[in-house]
Each structure stands twice: as structure tokens, then as C-alpha cells.
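Let's inspect a concrete specimen:
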Amino acid sequence: MRAAVLHEIGQDKLEVFDDVEAVGFGPGRVRVRVHATGLCHSDLSAMSGVLPQPAPFVPGHEGAGEILEVGEGVRGLKPGDRVVLCWLPACGACPACKRGQTELCLAGFMNAGTPNFKRPGGDVFGFAGTGTFAEEVVVDAGCAVPIPDDVPFDIAALIGCGVTTGLGAALNTADVEAGSSVAVIGCGGVGISAVQGARLKGAAEIVAVDPVASRRESALRFGATKAVSPDALADAKQQVTGGEGFDYVFEVVGKSATARAAYENTRRGGTLVIVGAGAMDDFLQLNMFELFFDEKRILPSMYGGGDVLRSYERTIALWRAGRIDLAGLITHRVPLTDINEALDQMRTGTALRTCIEI
């Protein structure tokens, strides 16, 4: 079968092979034919080494498809079922799951160290235990979440990561208060989803911040009341909040510099939400006096900060009701053979989300 493979961490191009085999099928596992997958910035971060991932590997973790085969002991799934692939399934038994913090379950991360594929030259891993830049994947049954027949595969793929992450940051982690002021730094697919979440919660002012003009224009269509480049954020803070700072600031880039800017633009007593996935050696510096004196809440948001399955259901309900726009997030479409074109679209910021049709 075909799959896009990164040979070594640090390479910026993928190579599409037709001699890749999905492996690991057996009890408790399912084989999925991938129909659509989104390109998330986390895929680029894994390729560059910002996020830890053994290589060679097949990137992709935001996918949807159809069950081809189910292993012994699998319940609730059958061949032909339409599913979204969840890269962070909850085991239901660990301390985090028992506390109701299923987004902190580590079971899914353990899958990242087991090869999902093989080629004649040896084993190949799947990013985040999945690897959706492939025609087929074999995953634990818990990674395959059934979706209704009326949800298109491309829409379902977005729900698998970016939309759930951005919406959840506003709805779950921050629980944005109606009438509040919000700034979102970084307006790709995840940031735009945070904008939509803030709008749903009734934020009065939503300032989108991004260096790419087309993304700023898109943010206005999705509910931002103002869109500015990073160097104009100070002026926006003055105009919108009288210089006090925003009630909520979402950092959706994953860098200490933007996190520091987000902190400085959060009002005293306000909330900074860290959504971007950054590097382990990139440190955010805060002094002890400002932490004490400003009383700003710093809330990291992992995969939307809530129960993933419930978040999927909520997103589908909001999409059906026309309360959120998911189709509009897909600005580009490419076949798997043109995957490097999709990478360029992400790097330059020309795409909110590129759908890779497999």
C-alpha cells in the first residue's frame, strides 16, 4: 500500500512509497482504510524533532476512514463502520481516567514506541501511534471512534485533532465567560477553532493575531471581531481593553516568545491558555513577583482539556446545528502523492487546513 514516510528526523520532505505494510493486527485491534486526513502543525513538529517521535515514521494523526477488519475481542465495531481516528485513546483504568481527566491518559503515548508499519528495509513507526498519511492503519480498537453516516470523512478528520483541540481550549479549559475579551495568538486550524469556541461562549471581543494576512482575514469570517499582526497587538490591547489586557489569551503557536507575549497581554487576574505544543528545551521565563502580584491563571490545554469522546459528540452536534463552520477550515486539498505541497502550504501559512485525500 501507499504511505508517506520520513526517513530521518530533521528532513523537510516526505517520500511516498507503495511497498508499505500496516502491521500489528490481532486481538483488540482494528484495520482501517483511511479516506481523509488533515495536516496538523504537530506533524511538522515531529518531523523537525520539536516533538519526540522515533523514525522512520509515517506522519499524520488527524484522520478518518472505514473499518476493514476487526480483531478478536473487539466489541462495538464491525467492517464497514465509519470512524474518526483518535490518537489519544483513554484506557479507562489509569488514575487520570478515574479522575475524569481522560485527556491525560498515557496509554495512547505508549503506542508511539511500537512500529505500525514495515517496509522491505525494516520497521516504520506511526506518528502518535497512528500514522494517517497511509492508505491503511492498524490501531487499538479504542482509537477508532464510530461517527454517524452524515459526517463526511474530511470533516471527521478535522474533529480528530485540530477542531477538538481549539474548541475544547475555549469551551473546556478556559470556559470563556460571556461578554469577555479574548485574544488568540496563532490562527491556523486550531486557533480558528479557538476563535469559534470563544464566539460560542459569548465573548464580546475576539482579537485574532497572526503574521499571515490571509489567516487574519479568515479569522474575521469565523467570528473574530478584530484581526491584527503580532506587532499591532499592543495597539489592539489599548483599543479593546483600555490597556488593561484581555480577559483570556490563547497561545496557539507553541513557542516561549509567543507565550510570553500572551502573558503580557493578559490582564491581571485574567487567564492565559497554552494550546500550542512546544519543544522540551524551550523555556518560558516568569519571575516570582509577577506570578504572585498579577494573579494570572496559566492553564495548559491538552487535546481540548476534556473527555475526548464527549468532545467529538459535542462538535458533531454543533456542526449539524450550523453553530460552527468546519468545512470552511479546509482551504486546500491534495492527493497523498502531493503531500509535500501540503507541507509547504502549512509552513507558509497559506492553508488553515489541507485535507489529504487518500
Notes: The chain has a mean pLDDT of 96. The two ends are 11 Å apart (CA to CA). The chain has twelve helices and 19 strands. The longest helix spans residues 162-174.
